[in-house]
Amino acid sequence: MANDTSPTSPPGSEGTSSSSLPPLPDPSTVGQIPPRQKATFSDAINSISWDSLSNIHKTPCARQTFLTGIATGFAFGGVKLVLRAPLYSACNWAVGMFTATSWVVWEACEWRRGREQDGMIRAMQIIEYKKLEREKKLEERREQLRVRKEEDERLKREAEKRWWKPW
């Protein structure tokens, strides 16, 4: 066994002997990320409210999604018109490309955000792990100092003992 470290140990801890510290858990199992549940279409429709529609511009990834979708839809619809497609067909292409592009950009953005969130959770785990390591080393050092102090006191008491007795 050349490498005894677990795959969940933090980077740079290959040579440390911290067998009593727990291994870091998987990032998706800790933090404030609730477990993902299967949602139905009716659940999705019921979760939409007027307040969420009026504040859609505040949703993460929404601006990038809409701007990319609008630009792509406009470009494809324009190209179809230039290529002498009927207006109805060009509009269908524009709406379809807006929808498809928006969906792809939304999913890519959400994927990036999820990875970033997992990275932040992992960073928090590593910070906590290193804090535990520091506390363990500090405790070991205190114990060593206590033992050394007791040994010094014992040696001092032995040195103070007289090796001779007058009576």
UniProtKB/TrEMBL annotation:
Spell out the residue ranges making up region: Disordered: 1-35
**Bias regions of kind Low complexity — which residues?**
1-21
Residue ranges the record marks as coiled coil: 122-162
* The entry's keywords: Coiled coil, Membrane, Mitochondrion, Mitochondrion inner membrane, Transmembrane, Transmembrane helix
Predominant cellular place of this UniProt entry's protein:
mitochondrion
Pfam families, alphabetized: Cox20
Xref: InterPro entries = Cox20
Q: Which GO terms describe its cellular component?
A: mitochondrial inner membrane
Highest taxon of the source? Eukaryota
Query: Can you say where in the cell this protein is located?
Result: Mitochondrion inner membrane
Q: Which GO terms describe its biological process?
A: mitochondrial respiratory chain complex IV assembly
PANTHER family under this entry?
CYTOCHROME C OXIDASE ASSEMBLY PROTEIN COX20, MITOCHONDRIAL (PTHR31586:SF1), CYTOCHROME C OXIDASE PROTEIN 20 (PTHR31586)
Family stated for the protein in its record: Belongs to the COX20 family.
What the protein does? Involved in the assembly of the cytochrome c oxidase complex.
Task: Please state what the protein is called.
Answer: Cytochrome c oxidase assembly protein COX20, mitochondrial
Organism, as annotated: Arthrobotrys oligospora (strain ATCC 24927 / CBS 115.81 / DSM 1491)
